[in-house]
Amino acid sequence: MTSNYIQEVFSLNGKFAILTGATGGLGSAMAIALAKAGASIVSIELPNDPNSASLAQAVSDAGSTFQPFYCDLGNAEELRSCFSSIWAAGIVPDILVNSAGVMRRNACEDATDEELNLILDINVKSFYISCQEFGRRLLSLNRPGKVINIASVTAFQANKNTSIYSTSKGAIIQMTKAFSNEWSSKGIQVNAISPGFMTTPMTEAYSKDTVITSYLMSRVPMARWGAATELNSAVLFLAAPGNTFTTGISVAVDGGFCGK
């Protein structure tokens, strides 16, 4: 009886999960978790992504299917065309996870236009376009769906030398609320996850820096870095069919950072 209930609430069998950034540290962990729950994985990624083959194998090992579609997320025209290709392939939208992200560290006064354009194009504009294209398709089909945007605790407490990144993640929190306000009454739930300081390829250099780690961990009640897989329970909850009344929020997975 218990297993039947869990299956009813959390099973993603027959669902399609579309992800940006699925080949990254956090994205791959979430993609595999969604696959283990039964979802077919659709990855929007760069051509010749070096991590694509290993992710495809992990998804297959989880008993699910993996379909890559290619584009430069920083190019709005390419991204919109990529979604058109996804729909043309007969993929039905159920879940969207926006996980792509880039970061550059420097002082506010030293940030360049190139860095500004890169970070905002990937971290904000691609999220907006992906939400928009996914939502348009759901609305045209009169279907419910789940959008999960990966933000960051820096949206709430900005760190030094990450001004553009923190700005971009603050925008994701407001974007999530705005889309939720317009779409939740139509069955489209839009939520965010705000990871804390997680060990990924993007943060590897910082996690190995004893000075940076000492400073950051002094601000985290659990006093450790998080693992990428520790986002899995949050993404599965927000994607779950049993989650029907949660929308417009950000779930902090941060070792207590935001609660301090």
UniProtKB/TrEMBL annotation:
<protein>
    <submittedName>
        <fullName>Uncharacterized protein</fullName>
    </submittedName>
</protein>
<dbReference type="InterPro" id="IPR036291">
    <property type="entry name" value="NAD(P)-bd_dom_sf"/>
</dbReference>
<dbReference type="GO" id="GO:0016616">
    <property type="term" value="F:oxidoreductase activity, acting on the CH-OH group of donors, NAD or NADP as acceptor"/>
</dbReference>
<dbReference type="Pfam" id="PF13561">
    <property type="entry name" value="adh_short_C2"/>
</dbReference>
<dbReference type="InterPro" id="IPR020904">
    <property type="entry name" value="Sc_DH/Rdtase_CS"/>
</dbReference>
<keyword id="KW-0521">NADP</keyword>
<comment type="similarity">
    <text>Belongs to the short-chain dehydrogenases/reductases (SDR) family.</text>
</comment>
<keyword id="KW-0560">Oxidoreductase</keyword>
<dbReference type="InterPro" id="IPR002347">
    <property type="entry name" value="SDR_fam"/>
</dbReference>
